[in-house]
TrEMBL record:
Gene3D superfamilies: 1.10.30.50. It comes from Funiculus sociatus GB2-A5. This is HNH endonuclease. Pfam families: HNH (PF01844). GO terms for molecular function: endonuclease activity. It comes from the Bacteria. The lineage of its organism: Bacteria, Bacillati, Cyanobacteriota, Cyanophyceae, Coleofasciculales.
Length: 99
């Protein structure tokens, strides 16, 4: 793939899957996303769009030439949702005690 083909494929992948990492779902700007081969080139994976996904650098590096997904990255749970989760858990526990 030359640079122009790569850029076109990236644009197409962003339109199809959104501007985020296929593996960890992290939303990233285009320049932070890399093109990842589902079936790596070393395993005779093709450069066709069905075999291409967008990945952040850590996920892409983690996969390397593997056929498997990257190790799961810890989810960054936003603070405000953490607070909600604690509230919810608290009210559930209270209900349990009331019973
Ligand atoms: Zn990722």
């Amino acid at each position: 793939m030359n640079t122009k083909q790569k850029r076109n494929k990236k644009q197409h992948l962003i339109k199809t899957y959104g501007s985020k990492c296929w593996w960890c779902q992290e939303g990233l700007p285009e320049n932070k996303l890399t093109i990842d081969h589902l079936v790596p080139k070393s395993h005779k994976g093709s450069n066709s769009l069905e075999n291409l996904r967008l990945a952040c650098l850590p996920c892409n590096n983690d996969r390397g030439n593997s056929l498997y997904p990257p190790k799961a990255k810890p989810i960054n749970f936003p603070q405000k949702y953490q607070f909600l989760a604690i509230l919810l858990l608290g009210s559930l526990l209270k209900n349990q005690i009331a019973k």
